[in-house]
Amino acid sequence: MIASSFRDCEAWRAEGLELSTTSNEACKLYDALLTQYVTWRSDETLGGFEGCMSALQTADPNFVMGHVMSTGLELASTGISPRLNERLASAVTRTVELASSQDITPREKLHVKAMELYSRGAFKKACDVWEDILLDHPTDMLALKFAQDGYFYWGAKTRMRDSVARVLPHWKPSIPLSSYLNGLYSFGLLETNFYDQAEKVAMEGLRLTPDDAWSVHSVAHVYEMRAEVDKGLKFMESREKDWQVCDVLASHNYWHWALYFIEKGQYEAALQIYDSQIFRRCKASGSMLDTVDACSLLSRLEMEGVCTKERYGELLQITQPHTDDHVTLFNDLHFLMASLGAKESGTSQRLLEGLQELAKEPGDNQQHQLAGSLGVPMCQALMEYDQGNYGGAVELLHPLRYRAVEIGGSDAQRDIFNQLLIHAAMKSEDKHHQKLGRCLLVERDAVRPNSPLTGRLMQRARALHV
């Protein structure tokens, strides 16, 4: 039997979030699945996410919101494309058909609409529908979390912050999962450069819930963006026992830990985290978050002059099956890092050509609409850099640097493209590019003072262009 603490039909109704099912078991399993999503933690007593989805299906096969959440979570994982995967595409269709054949609430109808838009890559339109839900139902955690993911995937940082700010007053401490709003709000604050407030809000979240891995993650970002490396290392180590149990986010938090070591120039320590935590977890989970982190870490180390070729070969085994997915530009760029690093030119070319093809007729898909003007040239810049054509990489990347936010991800994750542009500019034989590289370093130093990585690059620039 599922834990009695999870909400049944009556409990959901009492909160103004009625679910169209008569099965208390289905309602409780819905709550259990939502809890795993919010806490970034698989509940092994329920068989984790998959076991919970399966039990939910059994409890009430026609429970629309059960289908909305299960299918929505698969879509939000970005690891499967309904464009290519018939099972996922038919799950979307089945949910829409179920909804139209039943008398469900207006809120549930909007959830179905948002999920269907999301499946087509219409991220912005889906987020607008989730916000419609939150206007009338500000404590609908599923709408809030799906909206947060949607905003993250198209780089809508301010919307991500404000979406949480609008609902905060409606959440009372007695509402299950309420403490996790601190982490959500903190992340939006830090992505819009309110670092002090972000740290304060996240620390409040950790006071209420010490194993809130997203609040830990938020603080890790704050220290990363301020280049407070030693503070970050101490914080991650002191909290490790709390957050490492949150298996869905643990690898990403280890990635943040490794970034501090790269910042300090302690490459062996970063590689040790890659081998013992990030790649090991990535191989086991196949999760896109874990996979892009692995790609990013190897690329950053490579830019720092560390040999990572053999590791790229292993990583390619995980990224290669996703070459044709094209769910997000952010994922595509990271898969490309792996195929370039592994010197697998056929895979790199296939990824680029697939993206070029989708850019011709993008339909509703927001990422494919951006592919021609943003995704493709960014991919080409990576390829030029890999081939040693540093001037070509600068010419492609420099005009896009203020648009890169549109590929989604966080400032810390996208920083790899800032670093790539700086390295390309410094290595270019064009004097104008070299000057640009020095200017970018001055700019970087102004917003992240005392960064050891920036200091090393400045020294290298001076040595290169005497």
Describe what this molecule looks like in 3D:
By secondary structure, the chain is mostly helical. It folds into three domains: 1-152, Alpha Horseshoe (Serine Threonine Protein Phosphatase 5, Tetratricopeptide repeat); 172-245, Serine Threonine Protein Phosphatase 5, Tetratricopeptide repeat (Alpha Horseshoe), CATH 1.25.40; 287-466. It contains 24 helices and no strands. Helix 11 (195-208) runs antiparallel to helix 12. The longest helix has 21 residues, at 366-386. The mean pLDDT is 97. It comes from Pleuronectes platessa. This is Tetratricopeptide repeat protein 38. Belongs to the TTC38 family. Keywords: Repeat, TPR repeat.
Question: What is the strand and helix layout of this fold?
Answer:
Layout: H1 9-14, H2 24-39, H3 48-59, H4 64-76, H5 86-100, H6 106-119, H7 123-136, H8 141-153, H9 157-167, H10 181-191, H11 195-208, H12 213-225, H13 229-243, H14 247-264, H15 267-285, H16 288-303, H17 309-319, H18 329-341, H19 345-360, H20 366-386, H21 390-397, H22 411-427, H23 431-447, H24 452-464
Helix pairs in contact: 2-3, 2-4, 4-5, 4-6, 4-8, 5-6, 6-7, 7-8, 8-9, 9-10, 10-11, 10-12, 11-12, 12-13, 12-14, 13-14, 14-15, 14-16, 15-16, 16-17, 16-18, 16-22, 17-18, 18-19, 18-20, 19-20, 20-21, 21-22, 22-23, 23-24
